[in-house]
Write a structure and sequence with these properties.
Layout: E1 38-41, H1 50-58, E2 63-64, E3 69-70, H2 71-75, H3 79-82, E4 94-99, H4 103-116, E5 121-128, H5 133-136, H6 148-161, E6 166-173, H7 181-190, E7 195-202, H8 214-222, E8 227-230, H9 236-245, E9 250-253, H10 271-288, H11 296-303, H12 310-318, H13 323-336
Parallel strand pairs: 1-2, 1-9, 3-4, 4-5, 5-6, 6-7, 7-8, 8-9
Length: 337
């Protein structure tokens, strides 16, 4: 079975570039980021490989983010860290999200990225919302919501270091009872950022409970720059709600896009479409990042969640090691229907 092509250029031979599956209807202007209800693929560790970003762009995402990248790791010339900065879709630059706690290091790496990837980066985003223990224990990610002075120093340093738009992503607060997102957003705006992305849970909540969508409206009312809504976006209805009911300028899709890049369209994929895109993803990853082929096991589990043989597919994917194993599985999936 040959992989059907999608839109976007990859540094590989056919069939990994050609006509799009579906084109997004909005044009995202970097002069005024996140206008007109833009749809954005959130920066997700272990998910946003370059092929998945192309798939989401082909299906209508206005902007995709790299995985979260350590500024300190980049400063150490760590090859594993650098590998996260794969090129995006030609003609459709990728956003890069950095995290760190040292203003000088974060600013220096933002400046270096602009030099190294001229024209391929849409903007630099600073992560101040990641709740992972290994991140916050170093005073990075969501821990910066407890240290607005340092957070402001980081944002001001990055804004001064690059001509690219600078944005920041953060949460409702840090502790369970915290709700300091409005004050934090005002600080970010005064630091010169072009937009803010707000997730309606605190860091202590991780992804438990419901995201506070009303928070988006409160932040929007307090700022003059665009506000990107994040949290509990799993359907097109969730997207419309953020845009129409809470006044968001754009919507960032995270877990709702795993295995479901069709969330950026109004289409419900057939089984054949799921197989086609999953196969294209697998072939593409084999060619541009073969060491990450094992990650297709979880991608395949996500692609077929909710289908008739989801559990069987998940078990079979767990045993896949080489491209031919995955291709045999795709043939089986079509035979099982």
């Amino acid at each position: 079975m040959m992989a059907e092509p999608l839109a976007g250029e990859l540094p590989v031979a056919e069939p990994l570039s050609s006509e799009p599956l579906a084109a997004g209807q909005r044009t995202l202007s970097m002069a005024k980021p996140f206008a007109n209800g833009a749809l954005v693929l959130a920066p997700m560790a272990g998910v946003n490989d370059p092929v998945f970003r192309i798939i989401c762009s082909s299906l209508g995402a206005d902007l995709t983010y790299t995985e979260m990248v350590s500024a300190k790791g980049l400063s150490y010339k760590n090859p594993k860290t650098a590998s996260l900065l794969s090129p995006g879709v030609e003609g459709k630059p990728t956003a890069v999200q950095l995290f760190g706690s040292d203003p000088h290091i974060v600013a220096d790496q933002a400046q270096q990225l602009e030099k190294d990837f001229a024209g391929a980066i849409a903007l630099i985003d600073i992560n101040m919302g990641c709740p992972a223990r290994k991140i916050v224990s170093k005073g990075e990610g969501a821990a910066l919501m407890k240290d607005p002075v340092r957070a402001k120093a980081i944002l001001e340093a990055v804004v001064a270091a690059t001509s690219l738009p600078v944005t920041v992503k953060f949460r409702k607060g840090y502790e369970l009872a915290d709700d300091n997102a409005v004050e934090f957003a005002k600080m970010a705006e005064s630091s010169g950022v072009a937009a803010v992305a707000v997730h309606g849970r605190t860091a202590r909540q991780f992804y438990h409970g419901s995201s506070d969508k009303e928070l988006i409206a409160r932040v929007k009312q307090a700022l003059h720059i665009p506000v990107i809504a994040s949290g509990d976006v799993f359907t097109r209805s969730d997207i419309r709600g953020y845009l129409e009911d809470y006044g968001a300028d754009a919507v960032m899709v995270a877990r709702g896009a795993r295995g479901n890049p069709w969330i950026f369209t109004d289409c419900e994929p057939s089984l054949e479409e799921r197989v086609r895109v999953a196969h294209w993803h697998t072939v593409g990853l084999m060619r541009v990042a073969p060491r990450r082929l094992h990650s297709m096991r979880r991608h395949i589990s996500w692609y077929f969640t909710g289908t008739a043989h989801a559990a069987r597919i998940r078990r079979s994917a767990h045993d896949c090691k080489e491209l031919r194993d995955y291709e045999a599985l795709f043939e089986q999936i079509l035979a099982w229907r």
